[in-house]
Design goal:
Distance between the termini: 101 Å
Shape: elongated
Helix content: 10-25%
Low-confidence stretches: 1-9, 23-48, 473-478, 490-497, 529-537, 566-588
Number of helices: 7
Structural class: mainly beta
Largest sheet: 18 strands, parallel
């Protein structure tokens, strides 16, 4: 009986070591609670007395050189057991330990799942190795990532990506051979070299961080943060050929040194396809360097790319180009498509943007973009961009754009905001397709506009429904300027048959006089006339139920309705639209 009790106590000690290795505090409490029960049920592997506990797997960080951990140095004969509980990877209790068995068949040493004794680093196979018993995503701490901001963690994280997917970053022709997910516990992960993944249009990667309580604020104690400590203008994470991937609960901090937090690209070294159907959820992309090429999130290839990046979603993400001081505008954009990149069909839901020249810069566009329930704050001109425009959104000239239920707060009273910003502006030149359109619905815009007071400039069809267009906020005098909606002063670049079409329904345009029409312009000065001389086709302007408030902000007025396709003339317009009062007045 005494021997049986000794055996059970020995088993409990091994289980305690295993739970410590896995960070199972709750399991330890439950185990201690049943300490008086001599019939504790244990896994089959633990039933054997041939189990030992060791302190560490690797003993030293993959970035520092030779391994010193017990499993990295000794085989089963030396340790005297075929099942081993390691209490940590680099140090005891670091979350990287686990349960291993001796695999006599051997496997390639990957530095976390399979460890070959006697090797100074991962790589290569041997007659036997220690193999981790696990399921689910691969924890980066199993591969030696510390997450404490001291030693570099990029080698360990890259090893986890390779173990999960088979992609070897050291080979220029390697692509993923299987799909897999890595798990990133809460911590501060020091990144000195770009983390890389290249897919093959079949296999994919998931990067899942531990859900913390303070996402987007780069607080290592409560979120999983990749922090750039590499060379100036580097990239934290580069994803190429990522299909049906997911990145969630991870913050990326460029420390105002990296030029890009994440670069989602299309082409792969070995060819095969682009990036498609990927989701970024509860991530933040923060603090990039100064310059015209600095972008918190870049999409597409600068050379144009053979394949596309498309059908990608950002959900509850934060894009702050300079989080520490959003009034100091240094970067080009929070999110951007690469020049001449093959990029299309994107959606943003409940995201935040701030602190750059542009929030969303979809200059090179095709397909569709949806921006819904997002917040934009503090956009202006960097010192290197004098004479240019700034805007919350810059939309391309060949796509369909939908902006819905968004809020804009670009505060004119913040020091360092230069030049004001539009809510929406368009790419240079005319539109390249008669299908190009913009729908803005249910948005509230408080913004410091440029000197021309244009709050939206877009050369395609515009539909504006239920928006509040405010000229500014705070104590600045420009909050008394009436905002303008402009279709631009350009002709269609390739299809002169398309008319200017603006439909304005139940919008609020402040600081207009009683009896005015909605401030719908061609260029910055000319109210849209019945037939603009700059376009081969007639204009169509509809203003229904729009309102204003006087300069003293003491009275509200309904704006004059302007209804009808202008090419038919006033009489025909009135006949076609019997509810118009009056029909289309000459000059607007």
């Amino acid at each position: 009986m005494a021997d049986d009790r000794a055996i059970n106590l020995d088993r409990r000690e091994h289980l305690k070591a295993l739970l410590r290795a896995a960070g199972g505090a709750a399991g330890l409490i439950a185990l201690n609670a049943c300490a008086k029960n001599t019939r504790v049920r244990t896994p089959d592997a633990i039933r054997s007395r041939n189990v030992v506990s060791v302190a560490t797997v690797l003993g030293t960080s993959p970035s520092t050189g030779s391994r010193s951990g017990e499993l990295a140095r000794h085989g089963y004969e030396t340790l005297g057991a075929e099942v081993v509980v390691a209490e940590g990877c680099i140090s005891q209790g670091d979350g990287g330990g686990g349960l291993f068995f001796w695999n006599s068949a051997g496997a390639v040493d990957d530095g976390g799942i399979n460890v070959v004794p006697g090797r100074s680093s991962s790589g290569g196979a041997a007659a036997g190795c220690w193999t981790r018993i696990h399921s689910g995503p691969l924890n980066v701490k199993w591969f030696g990532a510390g997450g404490d901001g001291s030693a570099p963690d990029d080698a360990a994280i890259q090893a986890a990506i390779q173990a999960a997917t088979g992609f070897d970053a050291s080979s220029s022709k390697s692509t993923a051979r299987r799909s897999g997910t890595i798990f990133v516990p809460i911590g501060n992960y020091k990144i000195e070299h770009t983390l890389l993944f290249v897919g093959d249009n079949t296999h994919t990667l998931g990067i899942v961080g531990e859900l913390g309580s303070n996402f987007g604020n780069v607080v290592p104690a409560s979120s999983a943060v990749f922090v750039w400590h590499g060379s100036k203008d580097g990239t934290l994470l580069e994803l190429r050929g990522l299909v049906a991937g997911i990145v969630e609960n991870v913050d990326f901090d460029g420390r105002l040194v990296a030029a890009k937090c994440v670069w989602l690209r299309s082409d792969q070294p070995a060819g095969g396809g682009g990036s498609d159907a990927t989701v970024f959820r509860r991530c933040s992309f923060l603090n990039v360097s100064e310059g015209s090429s600095s972008v918190a999130f870049l999409v597409g290839d600068a050379s144009g790319g053979t394949y596309q990046v498309d059908n990608t979603v950002w959900d509850h993400c934060k894009f702050f180009a300079n989080q520490s001081n959003q009034s100091q505008i240094r970067a080009a954009a929070c999110w951007r498509t690469a020049q001449a990149g093959n990029t299309k069909n994107f959606a943003f839901y409940d995201c935040n943007f701030g602190g750059a020249q542009y929030g969303i810069d979809w200059e090179d566009s095709s397909g569709c973009i949806t921006v819904e329930s997002c917040h934009f704050a503090n956009f202006g001109l960097p010192s290197w961009a004098k004479g240019q425009q700034a805007a919350c959104l810059r939309l391309g000239n060949s796509g369909i754009s939908v902006v819905r239920a968004c809020e804009v707060e670009c505060n004119p009273d913040l020091a360092g905001i230069r030049g004001g910003a539009r809510f929406i502006t368009s790419a240079a030149g005319g539109i390249s397709s008669s299908l190009t359109s913009l729908t803005v619905e249910g948005c509230t815009i408080f913004i410091t506009m440029p000197s021309d007071n244009v709050i939206i400039e877009f050369p395609g069809k515009m539909t504006l429904i239920g928006n509040g267009f405010y000229a500014g906020w705070g104590s600045s005098s420009d909050n008394q300027n009436a905002p303008r909606i402009s279709c631009g002063a350009v002709t269609l670049s390739s299809d002169n048959r398309a008319p200017v079409t603006i439909f304005s329904l139940n919008n609020f345009y402040p600081f207009l006089s009683q009896g005015s029409y909605a401030p719908l312009f061609e260029g910055a000065e000319a109210l849209l006339g019945p037939e603009s001389s700059t376009r081969a086709s007639p204009n169509s302007v509809w203003s229904i139920g729009d309102t204003t408030v006087n300069a003293a902000n003491t009275a509200c007025f309904a704006l004059q309705p302007a209804i009808g396709p202008t090419s038919q003339g006033a009489a025909a317009a009135a006949k076609a639209n019997p509810f118009s009062r009056p029909p289309f007045r000459s000059g607007h």
